[in-house]
Amino acid sequence: MADLLRIESGELTADEILDALLDGHRIIVRAEMLGGIHEVTLRHDGSTFYCDTPTTLHKHEDEAGMRTCVMKMGYAKDE
Question: Which InterPro entries does the entry link to (predicted)?
Answer without folding.
Answer: DUF8001
